[in-house]
């Protein structure tokens, strides 16, 4: 099939490369000519393990191209995926900015030729697909097309495996003809008996929000339990194992931490609340999860401050990890970048390391000191705080780490190490939900 991907951000580039790997002829289109020029030069604008090799392979094999010209890639496409950004339009109120979606729909309309399925791949509020259909019809009354919603479920750091071996593929459409086209798009997965959920447009749009909100609720639940564990002397790791072995609950997303972040959970939980409010429905469990997450980040500021004796002024904090999770350079809504600035404002000195996130962090927080590794971060530090569970932080030489420090406080916000490991190395231990 000939497929066009509108947008070469995280979702568009990963999806385009993976569909090319399936054997389709894919053109990734973006209005940002600088980004297209980089891709044409073989440079990948985002960090995702394995993506550079996958893109290079399919470009060499002639199945993947890049363009900034809609006329070059829309007329011959049987399926056009819209994978542009949908950022929050007003900070904190849950509204999604759909201007890029609607602009893409209008731009596509004038170039449609022959039957085409226009696919919303971006995460969008309920009703967006029908608006895309309306915009295209109004812009080109002769267009022969259908609209489908095909939400993505890609985890940053594991996006390629998630695409190639998904738990399920969700396709929302009112058209039998579009359904058959989408089956052909995902034919390799269909042949492997991957579960497919074919549903209406509204259901498909809501599934993505509901899935992310449920996972965010699990994270907020275990974080709340970690606080309770600290108060009653229980161990949250044992608690999580004890409830996670229940098949009705499952162990995934039951790992306490400094709060959820990234491009999806914060935005999607607020968007789901907005959708519910606009339709006169309460979503109190999701609302509670959002409130708990904000409180967890604030509690982490207090935990670090208390570990420093109640006053961070003039103290040096070695921050290990800036990205919201391992194997990504994404700093959007990252907990460390909500927790460290309030401490810095009160006089703390921040020495930070992250394997992938420091380039962007430097532009956001130029007053932090950025170093080459965890050991350098700990030089002269009063406290080391493990924020992100990168593999290279999982087997640190704790004795060497302590020798470089001025203080002896270790705050493990991911429970990577056992209390015994930290204490045996001579540290004062502060974890989540355990002592």
How would you describe the overall organization of this protein?
- There is one protein chain.
- The chain is α/β, with parallel strands linked by helices.
- It is 44% helix and 14% strand.
- The chain has 18 helices and 14 strands.
- It has a six-stranded parallel sheet with strand order 3-2-1-4-5-6, sandwiched between helices. The chain has a six-stranded parallel sheet with strand order 11-10-9-12-13-14.
- Helix 10 packs across helix 12 (265-278).
- The model has no long low-confidence stretch (mean pLDDT 95).
Notable traits:
Rossmann fold; 6-stranded parallel sheet; 2 domains; 14 strands
How would you summarize the topology of this molecule?
Layout: E1 2-6, H1 10-21, E2 25-29, H2 33-40, H3 51-60, E3 64-67, H4 70-73, E4 79-82, H5 99-109, E5 116-120, H6 128-139, E6 145-149, H7 159-164, E7 169-172, H8 176-185, H9 187-191, E8 196-199, H10 201-232, H11 236-244, H12 265-278, H13 284-307, E9 316-320, H14 336-345, E10 349-353, H15 358-364, E11 369-370, H16 374-377, E12 383-386, H17 398-404, E13 409-412, H18 419-424, E14 428-430
Parallel strand pairs: 1-2, 1-4, 2-3, 4-5, 5-6, 7-8, 9-10, 9-12, 10-11, 12-13, 13-14
Helix pairs in contact: 1-3, 5-6, 10-12, 10-13, 12-13, 13-14
**What are the segments in which pLDDT stays under 50 over at least 5 consecutive residues?**
none
Counted up, domains total 2
**Which descriptor suits the 3D outline?**
globular
Give the tally of β-strands.
14
Q: What distance lies between the first and last C-alpha atoms, to the nearest angstrom?
A: 57 Å
**Radius of gyration, in angstroms, nearest whole number:** 23 Å
What is the assembly state of the chains in this entry?
single chain
Secondary-structure-derived class: alpha/beta
At the fold tier of CATH, the topology name of the largest domain is Rossmann fold
Q: Please state how the strands of the largest beta sheet are arranged side by side.
A: 3-2-1-4-5-6
| CATH fourth-tier homologous superfamily of the largest domain | NAD(P)-binding Rossmann-like Domain
What does the main sheet amount to?
6 strands, parallel
Q: How helical, in percent, are the residues?
A: 40-55%
Q: Report the CATH C-level class of the largest domain.
A: Alpha Beta
Task: Assess the beta-strand content as a share of residues.
Answer: 5-15%
In CATH, the architecture of the largest domain is 3-Layer(aba) Sandwich
């Amino acid at each position: 099939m000939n497929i066009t991907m509108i947008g070469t951000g995280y979702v568009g580039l990963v999806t385009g490369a993976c569909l090319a790997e399936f054997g389709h002829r894919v053109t990734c289109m973006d209005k940002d000519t600088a980004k297209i020029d980089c891709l044409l030069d073989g440079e990948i604008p985002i960090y995702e393990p394995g993506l550079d090799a996958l893109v290079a392979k399919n470009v060499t094999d002639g199945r993947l191209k890049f363009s900034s010209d809609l006329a070059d890639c829309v007329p011959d496409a049987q399926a056009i995926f819209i994978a542009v950004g949908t950022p929050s339009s007003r900070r904190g109120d849950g509204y999604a900015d759909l201007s890029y979606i609607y602009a893409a729909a209008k731009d596509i309309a004038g170039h449609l030729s022959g039957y085409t399925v226009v696919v919303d791949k971006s995460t969008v509020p309920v009703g967006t697909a029908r608006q895309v259909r309306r915009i295209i019809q109004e812009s080109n009354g002769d267009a022969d097309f259908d609209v489908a919603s095909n939400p993505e479920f890609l985890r940053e750091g594991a996006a390629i495996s998630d695409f190639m071996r998904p738990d399920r593929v969700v396709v929302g459409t009112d058209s039998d003809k579009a359904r058959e086209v989408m089956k052909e798009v995902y034919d390799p997965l269909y042949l492997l008996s991957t579960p497919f959920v074919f549903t209406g447009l509204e259901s498909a749009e809501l599934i993505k929000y509901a899935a992310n909100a449920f996972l965010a609720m699990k994270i907020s639940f275990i974080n709340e339990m970690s606080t309770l564990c600290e108060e009653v002397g229980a161990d949250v790791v044992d608690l999580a194992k004890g409830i996670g072995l229940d098949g009705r609950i499952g162990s995934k997303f039951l790992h306490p931490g400094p709060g959820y972040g990234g491009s999806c959970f914060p935005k999607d939980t607020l968007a789901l609340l907005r959708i519910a409010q606009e339709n006169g429905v309460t979503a109190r469990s999701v609302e509670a999860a959002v409130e708990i997450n904000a409180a967890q980040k604030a509690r982490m500021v207090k935990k670090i401050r208390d570990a420093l004796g109640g006053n961070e002024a003039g103290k040096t904090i070695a921050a290990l990890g800036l990205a919201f999770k391992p194997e990504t350079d994404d700093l959007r809504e990252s907990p460390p970048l909500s927790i460290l600035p309030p401490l810095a404002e009160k006089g703390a000195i921040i020495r930070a390391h992250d394997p992938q996130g420091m380039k962007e962090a430097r532009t956001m927080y130029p007053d932090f000191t950025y170093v080459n590794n965890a050991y350098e971060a700990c030089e002269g530090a009063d406290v080391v705080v493990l924020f992100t569970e990168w593999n290279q932080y999982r087997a640190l030489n704790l004795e060497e780490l302590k020798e470089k420090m001025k203080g002896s406080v270790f705050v493990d916000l991911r429970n990577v190490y056992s209390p015994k490991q930290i204490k045996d190395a001579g540290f004062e231990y502060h974890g989540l939900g355990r002592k």
